[in-house]
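If you are new to this repository, start here. Below is one unmodified record pulled from the training split, so you can see the exact layout before writing a loader.
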Amino acid sequence: MNTQSVLFSFSGAVKKHLRRGTELGYPTANIDVEPKTPEGIFVGFAQIDEVLYPSLIFVGKALTFDEHDKKAEIYILDFDTNIYGKEMKVICIQKIRDNMKFENKEALIAQMHDDERQAREYFNNQSSSRMRGSIL
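And here is the target side for that same chain:
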């Protein structure tokens, strides 16, 4: 990973929240963040036990559900392991979009699908670039 491309990072223990992400089809690891942490939807990595996992990261208040607490929700791509209580470092690489309020959860889910598509494209492009670089 190129450290020059890091926008910011933070860490904390993974906490249980409302499990809304799971209900929406996107189980997330929730971490408390400092008030000054930049908000938005980001592509980056979750580091657990020294292993980096490609992730989609939300930092902010869940506006669609009228929440007032700022937090981070990390959706680790292709990951299905219980990590409650584990320490996680989150590394944000690229911002996809700003936080926004949606009319309903269906509109939010549609946007989440698009966010996931963009994250997967990002990681696929990064992987292709590394392979080309190693061949040249």
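Two things worth knowing about this chain: Residues 105-135 form the longest helix (31 residues). Residues 101 and 107 are 10 Å apart (CA to CA).
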